[in-house]
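[Q] Does anyone have a clean structure-token version of this?
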Amino acid sequence: MRKSIIKTLETRLGNVTVTETTVTKTNGVSLTGVIIDDGSPLKPTIYYKPDMNDDELVEFIIDAYMHLPKAHITIDNLKDKSWVLAHIIPEVINATRNRDMLKELVFKPFLDLAKVWRIDLGEGTALLTSSLALDLGISLKELDRIHDEYYTTNLDEFLFGKDISDCPLRLVSTENNRFGASAITDSDYLRQLSKDLGWETFTIIPSSIHELLIVEPDKLDIETVAEMVRDVNSHAVLESEYLSDTVYMWDGSKVVIA
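[A] Here you go.
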């Protein structure tokens, strides 16, 4: 980004300092953006597409900044162990693709995945780093006791509210469709789901970091399912939201690789 663009942004926004940044997200995806220091405790970062021309870029950043929700989080919140624990969200990510990132995070291995935790900041989230957890005295055991209470199981977005009692698929996510694939690590939830569905075992397809597809046993060939997962991941899932090409199974007591 040219210095003239930064100067234009600072002039038009007034009383801010604009700094360009590149951030590595999940699965090694790099995003370019600007940090806008307006004196608030949590400085917003606005990411943009690199193919924008100068005028488009300036207008996009200004519009995005003007429509940011007001932050109600303070630095003191992030220094408060109780507050942080009350705003924790579990997430699962691909362990291999995020090997370097995991060096800085609190995580728990889960088959070929890794369970990590995010802090819900209202207008966004931040991954819980090992250093922050150490500073606050947050243990892995404490984090692992936290479960998302809002997992949902439906197929409404596919079947438009039709009866799904005879459908061999269920979609598992959260009420806000964020990081719902973490349900794969929640044995209590999966055990109850098994009882509710009347399926002693079932196949688990990782749709993305946000969703799982649950398949009734013996309804689909595992090889067919695996091929479908690979095809969907390569064509329909954002790189930053990719979870795994692996097909999993609930065997009645735990999750295993199918």
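[Q] Thanks! Anything notable?
[A] The chain has three domains: 3-66, 75-144, 151-257.
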